[in-house]
Design goal:
alpha+beta; Beta-lactamase; five-stranded antiparallel beta sheet; 14 helices; 44% helix; disordered N terminus
Length: 396
């Protein structure tokens, strides 16, 4: 209320002046309350009270988040530029995804390798017997070795050749010999059954239960690719059954003079199938007389029709594809108790030889041992001159 107007009013009674004074005081009170309310409604300044928490979503809140939220704050300030940045970073994101996938694969590979290394390695019978400590002139990795002239039976190289050890799939050479001499039809169809599934080692096979192949096809896969279900099916379908077949295997070994040899099944998965290098040289010599064993054990590969599928099988011995080698018959074998094994009939410098390598350490070491022996024989003058290298012979 204007004070000048108040004093210009004509003098009235004291009662009138009291009314006027009441109105003035009421107006002043209303004005003071409004000013206080207006002051309290103003936004708090950042500099007036630093202890007040900034509102969520404000610039101050964004800054308080630090480097972690900088990209998000930038996007809010400039959405258009953020879209450009996102487009520019798209290829980099794809590369990051590829790198992440590669990293995951690498971690898995390393984990598998670590698991394999942590898994205990079962020592072979030869290692347990200390045969690998035997030194030899050619420093072979096989703890047992024997090289014999096939025609004269002259021993050209030997190392622990009378040690009796598990022979793994070299067993299948006797399996093939018994079948070849049985005069059974090679065209007769044979079905793979649950009885042929490996319960000894749990090994896998591409011949599913129910597969039907001819006896000849099973023989081929057994000798060339060391197919275990094929070998077991050959023994199971032998007249009289599997037991009669195993008995026949042992009888044939005895008739050949293989005194160190014993068979309990036709595949070689059992470590109880055992023999010596000297006995196996005799077996190779006998098996070499069967044309189908020579052909099927040295063939490079074969396609087999199994239902709607065509399966490609290859030879387990890569030396048969090597033009430097002339191999007439061969068989490989492996189980942990036997190590890597190999028997071969071959020609070196025009001389027919039988080579036996047992309990070799390392996947390719048996082949390396065969190469060492061949190089040694080719460069040894006595072999070319026809003079004996040693006055030792195998029976037969």
């Amino acid at each position: 209320m204007n004070l000048a107007l108040l004093f210009s009013m004509p003098k009235t009674s004291s009662k009138s002046w009291g009314l006027v004074l009441t109105l003035v005081l009421s107006s002043a009170l209303v004005w003071t309350s409004g000013a206080a309310y207006a002051q309290s409604s103003k936004p708090v300044s950042r500099t007036s009270d630093k202890s007040v928490k900034p509102k969520e979503g404000s610039v101050a809140a964004s800054k308080a988040q630090g480097a972690k939220n900088k990209p998000e704050a930038t996007a809010k300030r400039n959405p258009q530029s953020n879209r450009s940045v996102s487009k520019a970073k798209a290829p980099a994101t794809a590369k990051s995804t590829k790198h992440a996938t590669a990293s995951v694969k690498q971690v898995r590979t390393e984990r598998n390798l670590n698991a394999a290394q942590a898994r205990p390695v079962r020592a072979s019978f030869g290692q347990l017997a200390g045969l690998h400590s035997t030194s030899d002139a050619l420093d072979l990795h096989s703890s047992v070795a024997l090289v014999v002239d096939q025609e004269t039976h002259e021993i050209l190289y030997r190392k622990n050749d009378h040690a009796v050890l598990p022979i793994a799939s070299l067993t299948k050479l006797m399996t093939g010999l018994v079948i070849a001499e049985s005069n059974l039809s090679m065209d007769e169809p044979i079905k793979i059954t649950q009885a042929d599934v490996d319960t000894e080692k749990g090994s896998s096979s591409r011949l599913a239960v129910g597969t039907v192949l001819s006896r000849g096809e099973l023989m081929h896969l057994s000798l060339m690719s060391s197919e275990n279900r094929a070998a077991n099916a050959l023994g199971r379908t032998y007249p009289g059954g599997l037991g009669v077949f195993v008995d026949r295997m042992n009888q044939r070994a005895s008739s050949l003079g293989m005194k160190d040899t014993r068979y309990v099944e036709p595949t070689g998965l059992s470590s109880r199938n055992q023999s010596s290098a000297s006995d196996l040289a005799v077996l190779v010599s006998a098996a070499y007389k069967e044309p189908m064993l020579r052909e099927w054990s040295t063939s490079h590969g074969r396609e087999v029709e199994v239902g709607r599928r065509t399966l490609q099988y290859n030879n387990t011995n890569r030396l048969v594809k090597n033009p430097a080698w002339d191999i007439g018959l061969q068989k490989t074998g492996y189980i942990s108790e036997a190590g890597r094994c190999l028997v071969m009939q071959t020609q070196v410098s025009g001389r027919k030889l039988i080579m036996v390598f047992l309990d070799s350490a390392g996947k390719l070491s048996r082949l390396g041992d065969a190469e060492r022996v061949r190089n040694w024989l080719e460069n040894k003058p006595a072999l070319h001159s026809g003079q004996p290298l040693a006055r030792q012979y195998l029976p037969g």
